[in-house]
From TrEMBL:
It comes from Zhongshania borealis. Its cofactor is [4Fe-4S] cluster; pyridoxal 5'-phosphate. It holds the Pfam family Radical_SAM. Belongs to the radical SAM superfamily. KamA family. InterPro entries: Aldolase_TIM (IPR013785), EpmB (IPR022462), Lys_aminomutase/Glu_NH3_mut (IPR003739), rSAM (IPR007197), rSAM_sf (IPR058240). It catalyses: L-lysine = D-beta-lysine. Coiled coil: none annotated. The keyword Metal-binding applies. This is L-lysine 2,3-aminomutase. Keywords: 4Fe-4S, Iron, Iron-sulfur, Isomerase, Metal-binding, Pyridoxal phosphate, S-adenosyl-L-methionine.
Amino acid sequence: MIPLITTIWQTESWQRQMQQMIRDPGQLFSRLNLDLSARPGLAEALEQFPLRVTEAFVAKMQAGDWNDPLLLQVLPQAQETNLHAGFVDDPLAELEANPVPGLIHKYHGRVLLITTSACAIHCRYCFRRNFPYNENNPSQKDWQQALDYIAAHPEIHEVILSGGDPLAASDDYLDRLISRIADIPHVETLRIHTRLPLVLPARITAELLTVLSKHRLTTVMVIHCNHPNELDQASIDALNALNDAKIQLLNQTVLLRGINDNAETLIKLSHRLFASRVLPYYLHLLDKVRGASHFDVAEAQAQTLMRDVLASLPGYLVPRLVREDPKASSKRPLALL
Ligand SMILES: *Cc1c(COP(=O)(O)O)cnc(C)c1O
Ligand code: SF4
């Protein structure tokens, strides 16, 4: 007979999984049968940006493989502390487009709200790794300023919840925030940028689906999946549940050296996303943030790669190759060779 205790473990709440995420490199390496002493110089990299990863994400990694494409996304590396010309703290100049705390207004018709500073994973290439979150982590009181700003700008049709990861916030918090956004008549679309369907699929609960479906706004969710191995059954189930709740699903990927910088991986990723009813949206060139230069793929190489991707996929499965340009009025599309 199967003991009852297994059921309890399987239904562990997302909050508990989030609390128990791995923050200690020793714990991560022993979980993956890797020898910590083989990697000197981690301490300084960790000081700049701590380790965070959920068990659900680690479970998709191959034990014993230092080059696992999911491990490389979270693995602190000594080389992060090397300085490289052009790799800076605020590569997108977001602080210049930050009119009130927690709100970034850079592009016409849409604003980005920094819903929470928390993430269930720390991606080493993240452009927000050096962002002054403490000054941009609004309390309930501060929402009023951001909401007043949106209300005073009738051209804003779309509000993007970003972070951090907005789904790291509680259902109740999201419910209150979304209903206040929906009270602003000219806002039509709610967009959520999240990595949790891949990193913590247990977050996609029936209660969350209710919160995301019950308001009048059209809802788009942009997930952030970099590699086909991230799409295991638990994540596919979460995506199907979101899709069944009439949430339009799109994906953005960051092109990362040693992780997904080959046509075969990108083609497989598009096919697997589509099988989960997610359409590829953007393929981003790396934002040149301090500490992430080892992930950089040159523009010309990216363009060559895209030629092979384009030759192998139907048009609707080809993501747009873009670079974020602090001075441009949109993400800047790169011409394909
Ligand atoms: C990427 C981004 C958006 C959204 O751009 P889309 O092209 O609509 O996906 C909005 N605001 C900021 C600050 C962004 O960085
Ligand atoms: S904001 Fe997104 S990319 Fe950055 S660490 Fe969090 S989940 Fe990763």
